[in-house]
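Is it possible to get an amino acid sequence alongside its tokenized fold?
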Amino acid sequence: MAAASTPSRSVFARALLRSATSRPVATCPMQMRRGLRAAAASQACSARSFSGSVSMVSSSRSLNNTRPQAQALARQPRRHPSAAARRTIFIQTEPTPNGDALKFLPNHRVLPEGFAAPFVEYLSPRATISLPHPSPLAAKLMNIDGVTSVFYGADFITVTKAGDANWAHIRPEVFALITEAVTAGEAIVTVKEAGPAGSEGAAAEEAVDSLAYNEDDDEVVGMIKELLETRIRPAIQEDGGDIEFRGFDEEGFVNLKLRGACRTCDSSTVTLKNGIEGMLMHYIEEVKGVRQILDEEEQISMQEFAKFEEKLKQSKGVAQSA
């Protein structure tokens, strides 16, 4: 305002001088008031024009200052929304009693909603592409050198390696494959119906829960299933495995099969005898014991291992005698 006062006074003085020289001197008070009003109006008009020019200059300067900032923002690359989502994926690992098995928790559901069975286990690369539950992720995991089996629980993945393999080489690859599958949103387990009779996959078994209620079960079998479901299964799932009920025979023995990390664990026999057998015999008097059911391949591998141990003992005995 101080800068605008000096031009305003000069304009006012010029207006008075021009009116005095070009027109007759006003002697009437009315004429003098009209002249003063005209001079004041011209003064206000000039002040507005001056302030308007100042504001235009300041606005043009601010516009010039903001243009480089806008250009710099426009040059920055836009980040894809999925980039932030990828960083939020957190995969947790938990050790198991089996040193050759590791449990991975991807903070993401593994088995699809409404899946009948509580687990899926892949023991060979062929099983990962066979009906009724092929899994692209399991196929990739089985291709890692040293991985022998992949087990899916409801919200965890258990990977079992060979005894001579090293987790330092296997774990990073497992992390990368699980992260890639979860980030891409691909189905970890694909549910496909078995083909017609005579076609490949016609003999594939449907996914069922062996501990599920069956109206044909007698009272003792119903109690055994309920105890296994409520007391035994949660503890085994914490260790990266599961349990499968294979029947109750006439001798009073409960036939069970361990899955996942517990399948190849050295302490599986201790788990069956001290844990499961003791609890079943304590609550159900009809139970006389527990037996572990092995598949044909597992029986062959155990026989070969027993032969290998016998040869080692014999070689040690010969070496000591010599």
